[in-house]
Amino acid sequence: MKRRLPSMTAALVVVAAMATLPLWLANTYYINVASQILFWAIFALGLNVLVGYAGLTSLGHAALFAMSGYTAAIVVTAGGAHLLGAVAAIAMTVATAAVFAVLALRATGIGFLMITLALGQIVWGIAYRWAALTNGDNGINFKTRPQPFGIDLTSAPAFYYAVLLVFLTAVMTMAVFVRSPLGAAVRGTRDQPRRMTALGYNVWLVRFAAFLLSGFWTAVAGLLFLYYNQFISPQVAALQTSAEALLMVISGGTATILGPIAGAAIVVVMKTVVSAYVERWNMVLGIIFVLIISFMPDGLVPGISRLVRSMWPQRRSNVTGERAAKAASEARP
């Protein structure tokens, strides 16, 4: 309990800072940047279920991300309610994730990656070519944001709080998943699939469940992306979106909860803030990624955690030595 107290205190401080962010950050632009970090972090957390915990690298998650946004946009534009659009978006995306899983889980490793890449490109092609449904390259304008319980989400602070609530729910869900029997089984299929089969587990079914969980939170992130931008186009389903999400997970640290969040913060800040001051921000982002992989192969969060743990025993030994020396000097006549 004593060991968990510092981490729990730090978590409460972070949550308090996030909850009060619009109060001490008066600039609307940076509040919007914070909203973007949160829903991209949800996307990265969803992808991390496959990449980190299941050991299955996907390059097709942008298709699920876009599927959610397009479904909601089409339903609402056709005259449906926002709630109907959200439910339809999540249901359609999870169903698409199930189809992806049935096709992609025939393989692992590079085979799985290439199948998800191909499936993602198929969805991108449909979004680009089926102009009668998706409006092609012109995209779909989404005129209004939803008003849950009558709360207007037009202002930046109101939308930020809505996204923050969903983000905290996603983080808690991931924490429960990691500690659950399903989470243990998913990690087992990553590390020892043959042994898991010998123990009686259905490896394919465990991975299928992980894919559906990943698809669900990807759908939620896609909805928030649509509500924020009030526009969606085939570019959202492009390979670049999948690559950026994968970069968030790998740079922050796979198989961790904080890693994808840190990775999302890095990528979003580089795209939205640093790009205004540095013309070649892509090159800077690439350099940061190379440095992280070179010096912290496990990712930024695990690397910093390991560095702190390596320094902490030395600090404790120094403090203990100083106290012993002080006690010895006081004991002298």
Which regions have little confidence, pLDDT < 50, spanning 5+ residues? 324-328
Sheet with most strands: strand arrangement: 1-2
Q: Give me the strand/helix succession.
A: HHHHHHHEHHHHEHHHH
Total domains = 2
CATH architecture of the largest domain: Orthogonal Bundle
- Overall geometry comes to globular
Task: State the CATH class of the largest domain.
Answer: Mainly Alpha
Provide an overview of this structure.
With 333 residues, the chain is mainly α. The protein folds into 2 domains: 29-253 and 267-295, ABC transporter involved in vitamin B12 uptake, BtuC (Orthogonal Bundle), CATH 1.10.3470; 301-333. It is 77% helix and 1% strand. It is built from 15 helices and 2 strands. Strands 1-2 form a two-stranded antiparallel sheet. The longest helix is centred in the last third of the chain and has 32 residues, at 300-331. Mean pLDDT is 90; it is low at 324-328.
Briefly say what this structure is.
The chain has 333 residues and is mainly alpha-helical.
Write the layout of secondary structure elements.
Blueprint: H1 4-19, H2 21-24, H3 28-54, H4 61-77, H5 82-104, H6 110-129, H7 131-134, E1 140-141, H8 156-179, H9 181-191, H10 193-198, H11 203-229, E2 231-232, H12 239-252, H13 258-272, H14 281-295, H15 300-331
Antiparallel strand pairs: 1-2
